[in-house]
Predict the structure.
Amino acid sequence: MTTNIRPYLASSGKAAPPLSIAYPELAAAIGSTHHYTHERAALASALDEGLMADEVARILGGRRVIEAFPVWQGESPTRYAARAVAEMFVAYLQ
């Protein structure tokens, strides 16, 4: 399953770096996971909400997004992205 987030980023008026540039190790790791769309949505949302790629990397501390902020059962990628980004902001402020 693949998800194209370019229309989402284009509609926001902001251009985010491709996942492979912002998180090269994460881009390689998430290709085989069944939570691929959840992670992509969370990363796109984090960048869209104003977190910088290096800030997200520090928040994650070498973990994947779904390791740092697990997906709840039945949670859609959109809802997960909103919750994960809110939790990232909390972690950033602590």
